[in-house]
Design goal:
single chain, 73 residues, mainly beta, SH3 type barrels, five-stranded antiparallel sheet, two-stranded antiparallel ribbon
């Protein structure tokens, strides 16, 4: 499936709660029509303690937004 944005493109959010924010595309999921933009839609996720991350706790990640809500900058 072809999309108008690719990984490492600079984009601007044109609709939704994060309208006006911009950043670099970290990943594109064409099947679900979603993109992850750096610094946009921060979500918090609980993480279990592992050998690499002894503490565990709450981690902030960039969440996906619909591909139709972004345009190239």
């Amino acid at each position: 499936m072809k999309t108008h944005v690719k990984k490492d493109d600079n984009v601007v959010v044109i609709a939704g709660n994060h309208k006006g924010k911009s950043g670099k595309v970290l990943s594109v999921n064409a099947a679900k029509q979603q993109v992850v933009v750096e610094g946009v839609r921060k979500i918090k996720k609980a993480v279990r303690p592992t050998q690499e991350n002894q503490e565990g706790g709450i981690e902030e990640l960039d969440g996906p937004i619909h591909i139709s809500n972004v345009k190239k900058a």
